[in-house]
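Bit of a strange request maybe. I'm writing a small parser for structure token strings and I need a real example to test against, not something I typed by hand. Could someone generate the tokens for this chain?
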Amino acid sequence: MDKSPPLAMVRVIPLGLTLSSFLLVTYVLCILFGLLVPDIFRMHEAWAPLLPGFEWLTPQGVLFGAIGAYGYGWYIAVLIVPISRIFNR
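Reply from user aminoacidic:
Good idea to test on real output. This should exercise your parser:
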């Protein structure tokens, strides 16, 4: 029997931490992937318009990108939880 809470019971903080961690890990994997493959396969052109301050392989750019990726997870959680509760009523 599934013991997970119904969607209406999803809380912002666990979802925010989950999504933010997922996006941060994905971001780091994309950076590592970009270091290992030729230029044609790199993903940094896709990240640049989505993450303000992101610059390929500068410490400041990578840090801003990580902060942006983590922030997007919270942004999604803060919007999804209330919206899902409204539609579950």
